Amino acid sequence: MSPPISTPTNWVKLAQLSFLVFTVAYVAISLFRGGYAKLRRIAHDFSNARFYKPWKAADNFTVLYSKKQIAELSEATVLSQKAVYADMFGFKHTMNGIDHNSPANRLIRTRLYSRLLQVNGPTYLENLFPFLKQKLDKTLQAELKKGKNVNGGLSIPVALTARRLSSKLMAVVFYGDELASDEGFAEALLRYPKDMIKCMAAFQLTPSWLSPYMHAILTNRGEAMHKIQNRLRDIMGMGRKAWNETPEIKKLTIAHNMTEMTDGSDYWDPELLSQSLLGIWFAAAHQPWMFLDFILLELSTRLDWQHALQKELDTLAPSNYNELEKLPLLDSFIKETIRLNPLDKFAIRRKALEPYTFQGGSPSVPLGGTACVSAHDLMHDPQTYPSPDTFQGARFVPTEAGAPQSKFTDVSEKFPVWGYGSLACPGRFYASLIMKLILSEILSKYTIKLEDEKARTKFYWESFTMPYESTRIVLQERNR
């Protein structure tokens, strides 16, 4: 009897092994080509929680600082945001071959995402709030049952817990509670962003012709990607009417509303909708949990701020979306943590699809070059942030009555975490709510501390800040 189609035959396994051996050999030769000094430098970087790609030339970077240039960077049609990340994450492989990068197509996508997430998003979130709260209660208790008892508290892995909590809640927002509760689908949602990050790292180390093979090896031939897209293709296409989800939740989900908004479109079809939603999922699933990890780590070393935030939560007792979003100290603490811990030290990255010169005659970006801003420098500018290297949890709380607060979700060239202009992250309100829901739930019930105060918490891959998977925090029930 012949083996099932889904099971690789022996020769396929042999081919995969051969490519793996070849890749390892290629990387080893690349490392040693510069001699032992290069290898020692790499080892030193690893041991000091810093890792770069010293065997490749630095990309052609143009870094901008003025508000005028940042606005131009954000809106120039030949400077592509998608092309940067397509190169970085290998969208040809990790997003199943999506390629809709013409200026006209970008405009169509941008308008849809803005309406879907930014214009209508807050209304959806307000109505989703009670369902998300219920999901969080169940998911958090399930995660805590996996913890271990340490000194009167429960020890949990902060990165894994943050990732799971964020993914479960975001899945309800995107696909509804039924799909979010499907363990196979939920596991694919959790795995897909991890696959993307693994591929990003691998693609930096290997020649581009090896990318499809590296992707196949690292992701089991895109197993999670295909599982997600197959379900999305169904509920956004032929199986749309048969999608089994509670009506009051379905009408609030991103998948449902994305399909409704594109009915009758000559451009959008189930294949492209599913690919596009896959890309939005990666951004939505990856960024919030990373932010959440950094915030929990910051809280674990600042007991005084835990008490201050707990007092705010106890006093104001937010019971809906608007009340939670209006907590001034929680919002400020989150924003200050992210200011000092951006995921990427560069922001608003754009790739030049053709040579481009900024107004005024400079700077010029060559074809294929990258223009961006230094998020680190902008968020450490002493003119904007006095004592910029000092953590001030209440930095953004207004000091005068009636003065507006600089919110975590505000878009500004001084806080470029969300991008800028028309391409600023339209999903930032979703990210903010998910993070605040989880933080408020944990802070209301527990105090937080590091299990090992000497444990490493972060490392750096090029300009990216990454959490250690091994770091654990201890949650102890509050004495009220």
TrEMBL record:
<feature type="transmembrane region" description="Helical">
    <location>
        <begin position="12"/>
        <end position="32"/>
    </location>
</feature>
<keyword id="KW-0349">Heme</keyword>
<keyword id="KW-0472">Membrane</keyword>
<feature type="binding site" description="axial binding residue">
    <location>
        <position position="425"/>
    </location>
    <ligand>
        <name>heme</name>
    </ligand>
</feature>
<dbReference type="Pfam" id="PF00067">
    <property type="entry name" value="p450"/>
</dbReference>
<keyword id="KW-1133">Transmembrane helix</keyword>
<dbReference type="InterPro" id="IPR001128">
    <property type="entry name" value="Cyt_P450"/>
</dbReference>
<keyword id="KW-0560">Oxidoreductase</keyword>
<protein>
    <recommendedName>
        <fullName>Cytochrome P450</fullName>
    </recommendedName>
</protein>
<keyword id="KW-0812">Transmembrane</keyword>
<dbReference type="GO" id="GO:0016705">
    <property type="term" value="F:oxidoreductase activity, acting on paired donors, with incorporation or reduction of molecular oxygen"/>
</dbReference>
<dbReference type="GO" id="GO:0004497">
    <property type="term" value="F:monooxygenase activity"/>
</dbReference>
<comment type="pathway">
    <text>Mycotoxin biosynthesis.</text>
</comment>
<keyword id="KW-0479">Metal-binding</keyword>
<comment type="similarity">
    <text>Belongs to the cytochrome P450 family.</text>
</comment>
<dbReference type="InterPro" id="IPR002403">
    <property type="entry name" value="Cyt_P450_E_grp-IV"/>
</dbReference>
<keyword id="KW-0408">Iron</keyword>
<keyword id="KW-0503">Monooxygenase</keyword>
<dbReference type="GO" id="GO:0005506">
    <property type="term" value="F:iron ion binding"/>
</dbReference>
<dbReference type="GO" id="GO:0016020">
    <property type="term" value="C:membrane"/>
</dbReference>
<dbReference type="InterPro" id="IPR036396">
    <property type="entry name" value="Cyt_P450_sf"/>
</dbReference>
<dbReference type="GO" id="GO:0020037">
    <property type="term" value="F:heme binding"/>
</dbReference>
